[in-house]
Write a structure and sequence with these properties.
Elements lengths: L1 H22 L7 E3 H4 E3 L5 E10 L11 H12 L16 E9 L8 E8 L10 E8 L5 E8 L5 E5 L2 E5 L4 E10 L12 E6 L4 H12 L8 E5 L2 E5 L6 H12 L2 E3 L5 E5 L4 E4 L4 E2 L2 E3 L2 E13 L14 E13 L3 E3 L7 H11 L3 H14 L2 E2 L1 E4 L1
Parallel strand pairs: 15-23
Antiparallel strand pairs: 1-14, 2-11, 3-4, 3-6, 4-5, 5-10, 6-7, 7-10, 8-9, 11-13, 12-13, 15-16, 17-22, 18-21, 19-20
């Protein structure tokens, strides 16, 4: 049964890998908007953090050993004129949490932003909880707003009579529109009458293509050049107005450029996932691969008792192990891909090997060592 499950899992994994390889053949080198591959310097947002309490939990909050939770509840109740005993408070419906958020640049007071909430104590679940009013501040300690609201954990965790059913993580969640800003989030996009375009994936060729596209605009002719592989600087006219600045940035973001990503093969050994980039090429090579599978099954055998005897734990028993070995030997297979090779050519060549994804990982590593794989090999 286990062997059948393993073969079924390997089949599903192999089909997934080949589907990814084949799907990539449908994606040719197409142009992309600048706003999809780059951003304007100064509009990346601001990160914020805070500390708060989540209440309304069904006996799944922090226990009394989490002294900071007890202290926080005590301090909160003192604001309402209540005093609780410090000995054995038994607060199980409250959990101490950290509140985090990324604030978009140019957000104004009154803007509502989602916040993430995560437990820092020993709470087992935040399901059904309510985040109490919690101050949220930036890195310099400036409080920019208050967060409060009902949590959405996106999962569940139920336990009864020693059984447990769980889905996803329930010790972290999100409060939609939970943070109401009280202060503006400023941003500076122009310095010395210049703006800078920051590539999300630095590449010299792509940066040069962006500079050429910007120079093609009639109002920005010969105004852009690539500082490096990740930055393109644009000199704005001195007569430009504030309204024209926004229009000019909009024009730049909507320009289409052809990106030139690095040829990469990304391998995740934990899941057996392999993704091959469209620029990857394979030089001619010959591969011979064989797999060896060894199974050891142990059976416990009791000595046969005499007739009409009562079972005794002291009866002698012995263990019998059955060892089976299955070796898969594939003939040497040449890999001949045209030049330049497409992802479909690579997929067809790899399909000829008829190996499992786990074996394909080893083959890719060997191809890289032999120099046949023209691209970067990333193993996660």
């Amino acid at each position: 049964m286990n062997r059948m499950k393993r073969k079924y899992s390997d089949l599903i994994m192999k089909l997934t890998v080949m589907f990814i390889l084949s799907a990539l053949t449908l994606i040719e080198a197409q142009s992309a908007r600048i706003k999809d591959i780059a951003t304007i310097e100064g509009v990346t947002g601001v990160q914020a953090i805070g500390y708060g309490l989540v209440t309304g939990l069904n006996n799944t909050g922090d226990n009394q050993r989490s002294t900071y939770t007890v202290q926080s509840v005590s301090n909160m109740l003192k604001r309402f004129g209540l005093t609780i005993p410090q000995t054995d408070p038994r607060i199980r419906n409250v959990a101490a949490v950290m509140v985090t958020a990324t604030l978009p640049t140019f957000s104004r007071p009154g803007s509502k932003i989602d916040v993430q909430v995560s437990s820092i104590g020993d709470a087992t679940s935040l399901q059904g909880g309510i985040l109490l009013m919690s101050p949220v501040s930036t890195a310099n300690g400036t409080i920019i707003g208050m967060a409060q609201g009902a949590l959405s954990v996106g999962g569940f965790d139920f336990q009864a009579m020693g059984s447990r059913v769980t889905r996803n993580f329930v010790t972290s969640g999100r409060v939609p529109n939970g943070l109401i800003l009280e202060k503006e989030i400023p941003g500076t996009i122009i310095q010395n009458q210049q703006i800078k375009i920051i590539l999300r994936d630095p590449d010299f060729t792509t940066a040069n293509n962006i500079a050429n596209a910007v120079n093609g605009l009639s109002n920005l002719a010969n105004s852009a050049f690539a500082l490096d592989g990740g930055t393109v600087q644009v000199q704005l006219p001195t007569t430009i107005t504030q309204q024209q600045i926004v229009q000019t940035i909009s024009q730049i973001e909507l320009l289409n450029v052809v990106s030139d990503p690095i040829a990469r093969v990304v391998i995740n050994e934990r899941t057996g996932t392999i993704v091959v980039g469209g620029n990857v090429q394979l030089l001619p090579a010959v591969i011979a691969h064989g797999g060896l599978e060894i199974q050891i099954q142990r059976q416990v055998v009791f000595a046969q008792p005499a007739p009409f005897t009562i079972f005794n734990k002291a009866w002698p028993m012995a263990g019998v192990a059955t060892i089976t070995a299955d070796e898969q030997i594939n003939p040497a297979m040449p890999l001949n891909t045209p030049t330049p090779a497409t992802v479909q050519d690579i997929a067809n060549s790899l399909n000829l090997l008829k190996v499992k994804p786990r074996d394909l990982i080893s083959i890719f590593q060997a191809l890289k060592e032999s120099g046949s794989l023209q691209g970067e090999l990333i193993i996660q």
